[in-house]
């Protein structure tokens, strides 16, 4: 690169590098970005508070003026109450507003980092020889035209345009109403037209290995879609409307830049059996994912996961779970992991897990287990080296010992309670007996008792 040493180029690169470093520094100062569920919850809570505020103000305005209170005094009283209600609402909203503001700041500074990095790349590219090896943009692909013409004459069910270097897809594709399968993988598509929502019968859609930065909201209209592959693109997020594709059985969104999944994903996709989300930037999984009772395969390796949802044990049909290579982020697992009774394969390698959950020994069907590259203490390394059965046996014995210890402590507490109860009953009985005896003695010795005239006679 002959121009890389030019003073102006070096100055521009230095400035761009400085911008990247400064913006990253600000992001680090802000701390962790709120996860998508927290942001959604904040929006929901703010809307709920505003709704309650409107109702309270309406009730206040319609409240009758008490007798004996003049109108001016009543208006002043209403104004004070209105101010109190608004102040209380603002106090409730402050925490949720803070969450949204922090998320917005992360979003803004994240864009600045991206822009600075892109500017740095452009400067570096311009410093090259300047040769333009790019291919001419293909306006119309003859094969695509042929497919559209054929579709007019007869109903097409399957179209395969894999690896055709397509840069765009005509809107007319959405009119092939009988289409069941569409393969557009391995092209250069940057956009999927909204018109694809017209493919009402579509069951399989493969747009993997393209240049997509987003999916259209209209994708939620594909009610019969069973298999969706959008892996190997540039997606930063999935549209919430994807939750409406309730017929989905397989969803592959791996090898993108996803920072989160839609909050309601698990609430709606109850038929999903395979979910591939590896090679993204996911920091957490939505709690709703635990409602995917049909899920059999979950691959979330190479992300930034800090843990798994506490209710993951509800995925009782899960057979394969891969959360390897979340590196320093994944440090522990929930106790409910032991409730995955159908789990056959589990990969936890390349994380920072120090102890398996005590319930681990309950995974009776587990056949394959990878625990490499973890600072495990429980179970010890010598047990891990003996294989999956040795690990299950060790953890099962540990769980049994723990239950026995808890039962022993419980029995001690019961015995102590019984002894306390006996002592209390004995003390009560003794007090009652003493009281009775006291009353009897008083009856014989007290001044109020009967007198004997012979003994009292003076001598």
From TrEMBL:
One of the protein's GO biological processes: microgametogenesis
Keyword Coiled coil in record: yes
Top-level taxon of origin: Eukaryota
Keywords on record: Coiled coil, Leucine-rich repeat, Repeat
Family: Belongs to the SHOC2 family.
Organism per entry: Gossypium harknessii
InterPro entries: Leu-rich_rpt, Leu-rich_rpt_typical-subtyp, LRR-SigEffector_domain, LRR_dom_sf
Protein name in UniProt: Plant intracellular Ras-group-related LRR protein 9-like
Pfam family, one: LRR_1
Residue spans crossing the bilayer: none
């Amino acid at each position: 690169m002959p121009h890389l040493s030019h003073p102006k180029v070096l100055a521009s690169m230095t400035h761009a590098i400085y911008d990247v470093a400064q913006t990253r520094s600000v992001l680090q100062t802000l701390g962790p970005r709120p996860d998508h569920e927290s942001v959604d919850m904040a929006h929901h809570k703010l809307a709920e508070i505003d709704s309650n505020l409107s109702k309270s103000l309406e009730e206040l305005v319609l409240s009758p003026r008490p007798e004996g209170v003049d109108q001016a005094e009543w208006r002043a009283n209403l104004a004070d109450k209105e101010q109190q209600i608004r102040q209380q609402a603002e106090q409730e909203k402050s925490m949720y507003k803070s969450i949204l503001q922090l998320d917005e700041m992360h979003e803004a500074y994240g864009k600045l980092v991206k822009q600075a990095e892109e500017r740095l790349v452009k400067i570096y590219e311009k410093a090259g020889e300047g040769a333009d090896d790019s291919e001419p943009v293909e306006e119309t692909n003859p094969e695509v035209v042929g497919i559209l013409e054929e579709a007019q004459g007869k109903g097409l069910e399957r179209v395969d345009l894999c690896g055709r270097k397509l840069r765009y897809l005509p809107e007319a594709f959405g009119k092939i109403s009988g289409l069941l399968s569409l393969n557009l993988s391995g092209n250069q598509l940057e956009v999927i037209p909204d018109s694809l929502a017209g493919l009402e019968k579509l069951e399989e859609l493969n747009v993997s290995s393209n240049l997509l930065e987003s999916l259209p909201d209209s994708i939620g209209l594909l009610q019969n879609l069973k298999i969706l592959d959008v892996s190997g693109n540039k997606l930063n997020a999935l549209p919430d409307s994807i939750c409406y594709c309730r017929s989905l059985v397989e969803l592959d969104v791996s090898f993108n830049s996803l920072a989160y999944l839609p909050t309601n994903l698990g609430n709606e996709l109850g038929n999903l059996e395979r979910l591939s989300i590896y090679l993204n930037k996911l920091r957490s999984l939505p709690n709703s994912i635990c409602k995917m009772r049909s899920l059999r395969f979950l691959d979330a390796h190479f992300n930034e996961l800090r843990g798994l949802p506490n209710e993951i044990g509800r995925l009782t049909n899960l057979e394969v779970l891969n959360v390897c290579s979340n590196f320093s982020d994944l440090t522990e697992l929930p106790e409910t992991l032991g409730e995955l009774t159908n789990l056959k394969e589990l990969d936890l390698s390349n994380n920072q897990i120090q102890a398996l959950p005590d319930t681990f020994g309950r995974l009776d069907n587990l056949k394959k287990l990878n625990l490499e590259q973890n600072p495990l203490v429980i179970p010890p390394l010598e047990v891990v080296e003996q294989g999956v059965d040795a690990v299950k046996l060790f953890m099962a014995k540990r769980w049994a010992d723990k239950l026995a210890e808890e039962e022993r402590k419980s029995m001690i507490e019961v015995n102590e309670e019984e002894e306390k109860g006996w002592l209390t009953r004995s003390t009560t009985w003794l007090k009652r007996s003493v009281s009775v005896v006291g009353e009897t003695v008083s009856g014989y010795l007290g001044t109020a008792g009967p007198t004997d005239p012979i003994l009292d006679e003076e001598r």
